[in-house]
Every structure is written in structure tokens, then in C-alpha cells.
Amino acid sequence: MKMIRAIVRPERxxxxxxxxxxxxxxxxxxxxxxxxxxxxxxxVGNVRYDELQKEMLLLVVEDEEKDEVVKLISKNxxxxxxxxxxxxxxxxxVEDVYTISSGVQEL
Amino acid sequence: xxxxxxxxxxxxxxxxxxxxxxxxxxxxxxxKVTGRGKKMINMDILEDLIEGxxxxxxxxxxxxxxxxxxxxxxxxxxxxxxxxxxxxxDILIDVxxxxxxxxxxxxxxxVDDAIRVRTDEYGDxxx
Lengths: 107, 127
Hints:
The complex is a heterodimer.
Chain A lengths: L1 E7 L1 H13 L5 E8 L6 E3 L2 E3 L2 E10 L4 H12 L9 E7 L2 E4 L8
Helix pairs in contact in A: 1-2
Chain B lengths: L1 E7 L4 H10 L6 E8 L6 H8 L7 H7 L6 E10 L4 H12 L8 E6 L4 E2 L4 E2 L5
Antiparallel strand pairs in B: 1-3, 1-4, 2-3, 5-6
Helix pairs in contact in B: 1-4
């Protein structure tokens, strides 16, 4: 299984979540985060903002579903060609998953 | 080393903390998150609610809003030795299990390395 952590623009998060629901991936955890990227934040006038508000979506899927989910998230997170700040997607391995309510070891 | 990530109910946080520290796993990181699960809305319970019937089980009320609406949960992270994974998971399931939907999930992920900043220790020594 794979854990997908996507850092996206807060205003795109609801669209992505809707699309994930339609595509059959209802289970998602989301949390507000702040961060900066390679461009070292945004410079407006003399002020540099390097703690930009983003939203992190966390979901765990089977190995074969990974590509579809990543494609779906990146398609909907994009705001235009060559625009910085659309976010990043990280994929990490997950060894075991337990459902607490039943105690069963499955996703 | 393994990282254990568990999404649990907000109101189980204190019990979980106590149980883990009694068993000798006091160190953890926790975060308020919102989440939704796999289960669909149960229309029968919704209709009962609209008709004004009382629902005995408070967890059921949480369950019916599970699907589309995001509900508040706690996400806890623990990094433990390989041999401790089983006992930590047993504790987490034991404390948090109510048998209803929305109890949460536990994920076990591999960790390559750990560093204790204070002493510069690496690997298993740092945990």
C-alpha cells in the first residue's frame, strides 16, 4: 500500500476532494499546513512571505490505485502552465493498515 | 524502526495517552486533523433524526455524517522499534475500539533513520 501526501492550494482542495469522492476514493484526511517552496515564498514589495497557507491531503491506497489518484490530484490541483505554488505530491510506502472498529488488518 | 500513524476519535485522546504511557511508550506527536471515511450515509438513521426520535448511541450520530462532511479527528505519530509495533497496535485497538464506524485507522510505515538532536545519536539509539 502507498500513502499519498498532497500539498495543494487551499482553494483547490474542495475541488480535488469532490473529484476523489466521485472516483471512488472517499477516505481522506486533511489538515492545514504552512510552508514555502523552492521560490523561497512570495515577495510583495519589500516584504517576503515565506509561510504560505496550504492544505495537506493524506490518503492511503493500494499500490495499483496510486497512479490514478496521483494523476487525479495533479490534474485538479493545477492552476495554469508554469505557475508556481500549485503544490507537491509525496508517495511513501505503508506496510500495514488496521481498521480500529473491527480490528481487521485491511485497508 | 517503524512509524505508527493512527487516526482516532477526539474524545479517546486522553485514554490513549494514559494507556500508552503506562505501557512504556510515552513519546508521541499529535495533531488535530479533519477526515472522512469510506462508509455511506445511513438514511434510516437520518429519517429517525428528522422525525425527532432519540438515538441512544452517540457514536452513531458521528457515523451518519461520516461520508461527505469532514469531521474532527486526532492524528497521532509514534516511532517505535520493530519488536514493539505489535504491542502498540494492540493497545491502540484495545483503547479506541467502540465497534462503530469512525473509530479510525492505523498505518504502519517504515522509517529509514532517526536522529536525536540533543546528542547526535543515530538509528535505534535515538528512540
